[in-house]
Structures are given as structure tokens and as C-alpha cells.
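Contributing new complexes? Match this layout with S-adenosylmethionine.
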Amino acid sequence: GCPGSRVEEFRAYYAVQLSGGGQVPGACSEAEPGSPAWMDALVAHLDQPLPMTLRLARSKPAVLQDFTRRKLESFSPELSPVPWLPDAYECSDAHYHSAEGQELQAWCRAAHRAGLASFQEISSMLPPILLAPEAHHRVADFCAAPGSKTSQLQDRMLTQAASAGGLREGGGCRLPTGALLANDLDASRARLYLAGRLRHLPAPNVVITTLPAQKLPFSNDFDRVLTDVPCSGDGTLRKEPTIWERWSPHDAISLHRSQLRILRRGLSSLAPGGLLVYSTCSFNPLENEAVVFAALLSSEYEGVPMEVVEPAAVLPSGLRVSPGLTSWRVPAVLARTRKNQLAWDLEWCEPAFESCPEAVLKAGVRATMFPPKPEHHALATQLRRCIRLYPHMMGGGGFFCAMIRHRGACSAPSRALRQGAAESREANPLPMLSVSSPELAELGDFYGLTPVQEDGTWDTDMHICFDGRRLVLVCKAALGVLGHLASEGKHLPRRSRAAGGSAPGAAPLP
Ligand SMILES: C[S@@+](CC[C@H](N)C(=O)[O-])C[C@H]1O[C@@H](n2cnc3c(N)ncnc32)[C@H](O)[C@@H]1O
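Output block (do not edit by hand):
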């Protein structure tokens, strides 16, 4: 039940934006984005509840995966594999919440609690698929809570480590040797949800921080970066119908600047050859293509070669996507509150920022929100390579993704992070156990292992550390991230910590 007038405002706004900012909405052919028939289909889908979707954890032992798959398949045909993503299953909201769906519901919840599968919206599964991190990669998730994409990234890193190395001597699987930095400004969301999501996965490579993403002190350090930025969220209207009540194009005006700051910091943290995904769950070009274009333009001015990657080769086959927009309009929204209800008049800015009157600038409109000018044609064509997901085309929520590659020649891991591991000893963010410590000897006895290195290294990649509360297994690359943050004066370990973890299959460290 969304207010009809708000739906009409939404329609009017997006009929213009999604048809490429045309002056005459609906002047395009019936099947094209923004046309009346296309908008009807979009709005009709936004009114339908989202299906329940579940992603299978691939890093669990094969026997557990087989068991989970068999159990899920026993709920067929109501629960079925997502056609373009064999590790995901979906079920209509109506069945899931019906009396007949109760057993399925109970089982899915149990599987989620046990970490065998995770509730996750299908469009939100795309960024980790596009990033496809390897086990040795240094990965950063800038806005990570509640952690659905972080846990998908970690699941992939664990799976890659196991498949590359197989079993190691003495039992247990190979663990990732790279690092996964999971950051979110909201400390309580990070603690409650992010750490909670990771609890089910071994995580010796994971570091959780609660810093402003636009200030993360890295440069050219990461092979993979995800900037899944805070957004107006109108792509999630199926899941959160209450967004209708507060929906306004003004949200995009206020969010654009922080989204751009986060993306620019993400790009400067990317190592040459590295890959970044920028994503939102918004339809709004001001939060999407405008942010990507402004960031590409500033990289070009700085002489750093970045480009939007053509996604066709890496998109899961069967997934229907729309290309990014190359043209849109900037709303000059005059927002006001009427009887506690948000009401606003929609006007459009002049097509060029330079002709905007003072009042519009005071309302927060900035030059970076405007579409590319003719002289930026070459850069603008790259925007077509962005990915737009529409609910009526692929069945999930609305979503936007851009894959951006640093075109510089690939380089060895950055000096900062290599030094970080050494500095972490001086800055002491996470004290390592000395080789002569009785605790380490006791651990060795318990697990039948012998520390091999002078500095307490368990094997060549892992350290056992004591974070003041618990013993954690931390890989060197994660210590490098922690050490670098500590050397940059970030508060550690109170605001950052290694998620740590035990070897898969082993009992948690005592
Ligand atoms: C779209 S959500 C991220 C969802 C998450 N990636 C997932 O898949 O579960 C955006 C997140 O950004 C966080 N956030 C907002 N401003 C931030 C900032 N300046 N720096 C870092 N995180 C921020 C919010 O707390 C929120 O958790």
C-alpha cells in the first residue's frame, strides 16, 4: 500500500531519468526504459513482495554442502534454484509466509543460523561475483555492514584457498593468504551484524574497522575494492515499502557528494591492475552514473588510468541487465514539510550547471551531478558499460553496479601493506604470542602442532595473537592491514580488530 500520489511522482521523475533525461517523457518506443508500458511494468513489480532468496555457502565441507542442497531441493518446486545463479535458491513470499511454507521457513532459518546458507537478496549477490577475489588478494569492503556481501566475498576466498591448496599436511584446509578489510562507519551495525555474519566462517584474513570510508588511509594497496555506498534505496521498495512514504529525488542530491567521496577514496586505494565495484540499490542516476562519471573524470585529470569494464564476459549467463545511462537531468527539488508529510515540487535544473541560479546551488546541487558534456564523449560512452538491474527484468530488487579497473601495470603488493606486517610488531595492534610463551606450547600440545618460526608464526602465513580477550589466528596480510592502520594513527585495536578464526574443521581455539 503506497500512497498513489507518491507513486505518480516516482513515475514522473523516472520516466524522464530512465529514458535518458529526455524532455518529453514517454516519447520513446513501448519497450524502452522510461516508456509508459515499461514504467507500468516497473511500478507493478515494485508493489510485489520480494521472493525469499538464500545463498549456499560454498566453503563448507562437501558433505555439508551436499546435505544442504539435498534438503533445499526436497522443498521443490516451491523452492527452486535461481536460473542465473546455481548457488542461490528462491521461493515466493506468499508460499514462504504461508502455513504450508512453515517447515521450509524453519529449515532456511536453521541453515542461515548454522552458516550453511545465507539469506541474501539476489541482486546484492552480483558485486562479489563480479569482483571474484582470489585467496591471495587484498580486498577491501568499504561499507560492509550488515555483511551479506562481505560474507560472500569471504566464502569465495575460502573456497579459492581450499581448491588451490587442497588439504595441508596434518589435516585442515588451506586458508586465504590475502586480507579482507571489512569497514563500516556504524560501529553497532559492524559489531552486531557484520561480525555476526562472519562468525560462521574461518576468518584469519579478515579485519573489521569502523572508520569513515572516505578517510581510509590506503593508497594503491588493494587488488579488489567494493564500495557499496549508502544510498536512497529506492531499488529496495519491494523489501521496504515504507520507503514510498519518504521517497523524494532530494535524497539523491544529499547523498551524491558522500558517495563520490567514498568512490574516489576507493579508486585511490586500488592497486594498478586492480578491480573496484561501485554499487547502490538506487535507480537514481545522480547516485549512480553521475558519481561514476565524476570519479572517472577526476582520475583522468590526475593522470590515473581508470576505465569501466565491459561486463558481458563476466556476467552470469541468463541474467537480464540494462546498460548504464549516458544522459539524465538534475532535479531542482524544493522540499518542504506539509502536515508532517514530505511534499515537494519537482523542477528540473538547466541542462548545464553554469546556468543554474543561486537558489538551486543553495539547495545542494553541484557540478558533479550533471551528465557528461560533448567534449567528454569518450569517457561518457564508458557509462554504457554500467549495469542496471530492474525488478521486472530479473525478479529481484533494483540495483546498480559499475566495475572499474585501474589500467596501470599490475604491481607487487604495495609497500605500505608489506611494511604494515613489520610495523604491526612495533605498533603492537594485536600482540603475537612469543615462541617461548607457555600458552603457545599448550596450544601446540592441544592440536599436536609445533610452531616453526622464531617469531611465533604457526606456519609461513599464520600468526597466533592475543587480542586481550581471545586467542586468534591471523594471517600475515591481515596483520599488514592492521599494522598500516596503526602506523597511520588509527585507534587500534578498540576501533579495529582482526575477526580471526580457527582452522576449518578444527575446534575453536581454547
Ligand atoms: C548499502 S549499506 C551496505 C550493505 C552491505 N555492503 C551488505 O551487503 O550487507 C551501506 C552501509 O554504509 C555505511 N556507511 C554510511 N556512511 C559511511 C561512511 N562514511 N563510511 C563507511 N560506511 C558508511 C552504513 O552504516 C551502511 O551499513
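Reviewers usually confirm one structural detail per submission. For this one: Residues 52-120 form a domain with the Alpha-Beta Plaits fold (CATH 3.30.70).
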